[in-house]
Amino acid sequence: MESSFPPADLPRRLLYATSARIGGIGLDLCAQEQLKLAVRGGFLGCAVAFQNRCADVPDAKVRSLRFTPVRLLSFLDRPYYYGAKRRAADAAAAREARTGGYDFFHGWAGDSLAALRAAGERGMPSVLDIPTWHVAHGFRRYENVPPPGGLAGRLLPGGWLRGLPITPERVRAEYERATLLLTRSTYATETFLREGFAPEHIFNTDEGADTERFQPGEPPALFRALFVGALIQRKGVHLLLEAWHRLNLRDAELVLCGHVHDEIKPFLARFNGGNVRVVGKTPRVEEHYRSATLHIFPSQCEGCAKATCEAAASGLPQITTRESGDVVIDGLNGLNVPRNDLDALCARIEHLYRHPELLPPMRLAARARALAHFTWDAYRVRLAQGYRRALTLGVRAR
Question: Which residues fall within 8 angstroms of residue 124, CB to CB, at 6 or more apart?
C-alpha cells in the first residue's frame, strides 16, 4: 500500500480521531500503526489527536489538540480529566466531519458519539475501535465514578463536573451508530454477540508487534517468569503475586515490568518473598523479554493484550487467560488458564517449571505464530479488510 492514491475499494478521504496521542505505547502505538495504513494508501484526510509523535504521519495531516484548554484540567481525578479529553476530541472530530469533505470515519469507543452523529448526517460509513469488550461485560470503567475530590470538587460547578465522565449509555449509543465495530479478540467479539449484535457488524482485527524490535534471546539459566503491563488487579497481577508466593520455587524469579499502581502495593508488600523483582516502566522492555523463560499474563479483561504479541514475537512461551486475546493456543505456544483461578495458575506455572523440555518447542511455535499472524503489517491487512466491510455495509439506518 505504498501508492499515492487509495485503491478503489478503500476510503478516499479518511477522518480519524482519538483522544490519545499518535505514537508511543498502548493505544498511542495502535493509533500510529493504524494511521500508517491510510498514509501509505494515500487516503488520510485528517487525524484528530492530542499530539503527533510519529514521523510516518505528516503533521500537516494532524489536527493537534496538544494546546487545547482542556489540558488545564489535568489536576482533575482521572475519570473527569479523561472524560474532558474524550469530549474535546469528539467535538473537534464532529466539527471536522461536517466541514472537511471526508467519506469515512474511524473513531474509538468512548471518544466518538458526536463525530459518529456527524458522520451519519454526511452519509459516511464508520468504524468504531473497541479496546476491550462490550461495556456490559468488561470492567466497569464507565460506572460508579466517585465524586470529584479536593479543591476541584469544592470550587468547580458540580453539575458541570458530573457531566464529564463517559457513561455506559453514551458508549452504547456509539455502538448503535457505528457501521462496523472493530474488536480485538474472539472473546471480545462474543461479548457483542451476546448483546444481540449481528455478526456482519463486528470485525476482529487482533493487534501486532514489532518483530524486528522483539526477537528471541538465549533462555536464562534460572526459571525467570515475566509480566509486562500496568501493575493493576484487572490484569491479574495480585493473583500472580499470590501464586508465586505460594509456589516458592527454587532458582526462580518473577520480574514485573510496568507502572506500579497504588492498588497493587499491598500485594507487593504481602507476597514479595525476595524472589520478585519490580522493574517498573522501562523503555527497553524488549531486553526483559529476551532474558525471560516465559511470560505470564493472567488478565481478567483485555481486547488483545499488546504484551502477549510482544512476548510471542520474542519467542516466549506464555501462560495467559482466554480473556487476554487470541495469541496463545493452549499446548502449542503456551498454556491457557481460567481467569481468577489461583489453583489453576499455580498448577500451570509449576507444570512448566517441572517440565522444561516443553519450553523449546513452545518458543519456536511462539515466534512462528507471531511472524504469521501478529506483525503490524498483518494487522494493517486486517484493518483494510475491516474498512472494506464497512464500505460495503454503508451507513447504518437509525
Answer: 15, 97, 102, 103, 104, 105, 395
